[in-house]
Amino acid sequence: MERAMISDAVRRAAAPGSLLTVAAGACIALSTVSLWWVLPAAVTAFLAGREPGRTAPTLLVLVAVVAGGVVAVALVPSWLLMAGRFVAVVVVAAMLPWFAGRFWRLYQELVRAGWERAGQLEREQPPPLPTAR
């Protein structure tokens, strides 16, 4: 029983969405060193948003990165000016692309469901009535 739970937890942690979320979080954290990391952060956040699944891992990574920033600013008050840039990076390079990826995935699912429904309605159509001549 315990082995199955561990195996399930490992499988969920190694899911592409979780790995992309961790990569996005790492890129966001590295963006405090160099703004070059904003581009990979935006790309990985968008791809993580496109993955189906729960949103909890993304929320946990965001909270961890922001908490790390708060602790760093509390320990070194001279970093307060960098905190504004950090917040801008988190919002623009992480959350905006992540929400765009979520929107894209949901839109694609709705389009697919609409076409499936149209096909179902077409199959359920009664045969046409014969016309009198």
Plain-language structure description:
With 133 residues, the chain is mainly alpha-helical. The protein is built from 5 helices and no strands. It is elongated, with a radius of gyration of 23 Å. The mean pLDDT is 81.
How would you sum up this structure in a few lines?
This protein is an all-alpha fold. It is built from five helices and no strands.
Termini distance?
Answer: 73 Å
Per DSSP, the total helix count is 5
Helix content: over 70%
**Rg for CA atoms:** 23 Å
Overall 3D shape: elongated
Q: What is the number of beta strands? A: 0
Sketch the topology as an H/E string, one letter per element: HHHHH
Report the portion of residues in β strands. Answer: under 5%
Sheet having the most strands: none
Which structural class matches the secondary elements? mainly alpha
- Mean pLDDT over the full residue set: 81
Uncertain regions spanning at least 5 consecutive residues: none
What descriptors fit this protein?
single chain, 133 residues, mainly alpha
List the helices and strands and how they pair.
Layout: H1 2-13, H2 16-30, H3 38-50, H4 56-75, H5 80-123
